[in-house]
Amino acid sequence: MIEIKKVSKAYKNNVVLKDISFKIDTGKFTVLIGESGCGKTTLLKMINKLIMPTKGDIFIDGKNIKDLDEIKLRRSMGYVIQQTGLFPHLSVRENITIIPKVLKIPLEKIEEDTLKMMDMIGLDESLLDRFPNELSGGQQQRIGIARAFITNPDIVLMDEPFSALDPMSRVSLQDELLKLQDKLHKTIVFVTHDMDEAIKLADKIAIFDNGELVQYDIPENILKHPANDFVKNFVGKKRIWTSPKYIKVEDIMIDKPVTCFPNYTVFYCLNKMKMMKVDSLMVIDENKKFLGVLYAESVTDKESVNKKAAEYMLRDVPIVKKGDSIMTLAKLVTESRLSNIPVLDGDNHLCGLITRSSLIMALSQQFLDEEE
Ligand SMILES: Nc1ncnc2c1ncn2[C@@H]1O[C@H](COP(=O)(O)OP(=O)(O)O)[C@@H](O)[C@H]1O
Ligand SMILES: [Mg+2]
User: Fold this and answer.
1) b (16+ CB within 10 A) / e for 223-253
2) What is the pTM of this model?
3) CB-CB neighbours of 216 under 10 Å
4) Which helix (H) or strand (E) holds 200?
5) Count of CB atoms within 10 A of residue 58's CB?
6) pLDDT digits over 285-315, tens only?
7) Given this model, what pLDDT does residue 303 score?
């Protein structure tokens, strides 16, 4: 874990970072985001002692980095920057292997690791003998990533590594990095000013404004519960629609569906539907456990009105869990052509209902927000 503790940084009278404290989880992808000049690079460079804090401390796995040798510390971390930082007069192979050689790793092992890294970042090994300026921007940045990961560091710092790339290369490098992280589980600290990039990559996002840490949370909470107006504006109201996996059934369900008990008569239930202007009732037991759905249309003959709801309810109906995403829901609605879907919690208690109109209302929100 990296612990940033009451860290401040001032350049003469210009206070760039004000009393920043937060903890960066081991093996997770943490994104630092904020507008240009808000101190992201400064904070990142403090983690590998390229810049010293004016006040406060940084601990890595409980050790104050003040007490650590900065060369050793830097070599124990990968570092990727926007301008790739590749040496132009060295071949791609020499660029990748420079640190492993300094660390006196056996040459056969370096060669093996180099080929493995090239494969992991999706580059052909024939590129190893080229020079950086013979590669595209995207390829160069992939080499930058290979160089940062090849020594198998626990921590990788990345400062806007994809900002200078065209949108297509950018997306494919993001995907590649996610795949890499899926395999390697490094502690990645990644700086960007692009919220879409942050939401796509981050396990946790730290948002900075004017030298202060204004929110530090998982992407879902940043999208749904922005801490203040700055975050709200920075995120933008419609952003969540670009990440529908963060929209959950419980965010859009009706939370008080009309219910009945199984021993109610069908007659009573039909009356209740009429009064409440619904065409079905959710049948539950006294503990709110979901049993089935009674549809008005299932009741076809007069005799049945004196029977019990239990006899006429449908038991095997498709349901969703409250934590399911809106994408799962949309698929179910399309496949089953149902208009009403009960929402259950982990213990199969009824906690809400999705109706066609609640779904349409939720989906139309993305267009309505724009006009407010
Ligand atoms: N060496 C320096 N001397 C004086 N001011 C600096 C120095 N480095 C950065 N700054 C100032 O600190 C602020 C934060 O810079 P930086 O951390 O690079 O921001 P970001 O990476 O978020 O764009 C900026 O206002 C910048 O001008
Ligand atoms: Mg910067």
Assistant:
1) beebeeebbeebbebebbbeeeebbbbbebb
2) 0.80
3) 20
4) helix 195-201
5) 23
6) 999 999 999 998 888 777 787 889 999 999 9
7) 79
| pLDDT single digits (tens) 336-359 | 877 789 999 999 999 999 988 778
Closest CA to 29 of 164, 247, 214, 219: 219
Q: Is the CB of 215 under 6 A from ligand 1?
A: no
What's the token pair of residue 272?
A: 């209740």
Find out whether the beta carbon of 44 lies less than 6 Å from any atom of ligand 1.
no
pLDDT at 132: 94
Q: Nearest 5°: phi and psi at 299? A: -90, 105
Sheet with 204-209: list strands edge to edge: 77-81, 155-159, 187-192, 29-34, 204-209, 212-217
Looking at residue 15, the DSSP 8-state letter turns out to be E
| 248 three-state secondary structure | strand
Give the tokens for residue 101. 């050689």
Cα separation, 155 vs 28, whole angstroms: 10
Rounded CA gap, 111 and 260, in Å?
Answer: 70
Reduced to 3 states, what is the DSSP secondary structure of residue 258?
Answer: coil
* Top mutation candidate among 42, 43, 208 for ligand 1, by most atoms within 8 Å of CB: 42
Two tokens, residue 234 = 């920075």
Q: Is 35 in the pocket of ligand 1 (CB under 6 A)?
A: no
Q: Is the CB of 313 under 6 A from ligand 1?
A: no
Ranges of residues in the chain with a pLDDT under 70 are 366-372
Q: What is the DSSP letter of 211?
A: T
Q: What is the pLDDT of residue 247?
A: 86
CA distances for 111 relative to 13, 91, 93, 117, 152, angstroms: 49, 14, 9, 10, 14
Q: Give the three-state DSSP class for 130.
A: coil
pLDDT at 245: 82
For tokens 């504006």, name the residue. 233
What local confidence, expressed as pLDDT, does residue 326 receive?
Answer: 87
3-state secondary structure of 127: helix
Domains of the chain, with CATH numbers?
2-242 (3.40.50.300), 250-366 (3.10.580.10)
pLDDT of residue 305: 79
- Of the CA atoms within 13 Å of residue 47, those in its CB half-sphere come to 30
Structure tokens at 88: 């132009």
Spacing, Cα 34 to ligand 2 middle (Å): 9
